[in-house]
Design a protein that fits this description.
alpha/beta; 11 strands; five-stranded parallel beta sheet; four-stranded antiparallel beta sheet; 39% helix
């Protein structure tokens, strides 16, 4: 299980190596984009939980990327920390006004950066730092690896647990098979996309025992979503 997915947008290899090492050691899943165009493509393919964004980038600047993220409904609230060698107060103001949530000047302390990342994630995605997760009738104890529906324990395999966790962290959002493969199995593992269907069926069977309503919605030609209504009952 990871603490969250972080996209590093940085063209200096030494900085990428430093960031990647420290983030992965702390339990984060890390992806890297080396220029602005690649960053925009990667966010479109799989939105990260947080972006570390260099100011000076080839093709599209960090400031412009930040502005584009804030104009899109899907990424409007995605946490962004801007990393830059520009330390003047006017630069800090410009970076924050472009939509960055925080701003750090190179060289920076990895420990301080991790503290700021965790602080932003606690505000934006509490489920990534809390040990319990709730969505409608479902409760998940992340520390004990247990799942409950209305207080009744549901037995799940490791893959179904990871799959349900990802859906519970994003209730109502539709994920394609490819997005679920990346999030649950990892981008470096080759798995047939139909494998997702198999595990969704197993998850449904476990969750929907005793004639309970189905909380997983299939969207034809799009993917799957975890659905709850305002009362926390399957839609």
């Amino acid at each position: 299980m990871t603490k969250g997915n972080i996209l590093i947008v940085e063209d200096e290899a030494a900085v990428v190596t430093l960031l990647k090492y420290n983030l992965e050691r702390e339990g984060f899943a890390v992806d890297v984009a080396y220029d602005g165009d690649e960053a925009l493509i990667k966010v479109e393919e799989a939105q990260p939980d947080l972006m570390l964004l260099d100011w000076m980038l080839p093709n599209v600047s960090g400031v412009e990327i930040c502005r584009r993220m804030r104009r899109r409904q899907e990424t409007r609230n995605m946490p962004i920390i801007m990393l830059t060698a520009r330390g003047e107060e006017s630069d800090t103001v410009r970076g924050l006004e472009s939509g960055a949530d925080d701003y750090m000047v190179k060289p920076f302390s990895p420990g301080e950066l991790l503290a700021r990342i965790n602080a932003l994630l606690r505000r934006s995605r509490p489920s990534l730092t809390d040990e319990t997760l709730e969505a409608g009738e479902l409760q998940m104890d992340l520390a004990a690896y247990r799942v409950y529906r209305n207080g009744d324990e549901i037995k799940l395999g490791p893959t179904e647990f990871r799959l349900l966790r990802h859906l519970m962290e994003n209730p109502g959002r539709v994920f394609s098979r490819e997005q679920l493969l990346d999030a649950v199995w990892g981008r470096d593992v080759y798995v047939e996309s139909r494998t997702v269907d198999v595990h969704i069926r197993r998850l449904r069977k476990a969750l929907n025992q005793e004639g309970r309503e189905d909380v997983i919605r299939t969207v034809r030609s799009a993917g799957y979503a975890l659905e709850t209504n305002a009362n926390g009952v399957a839609a």
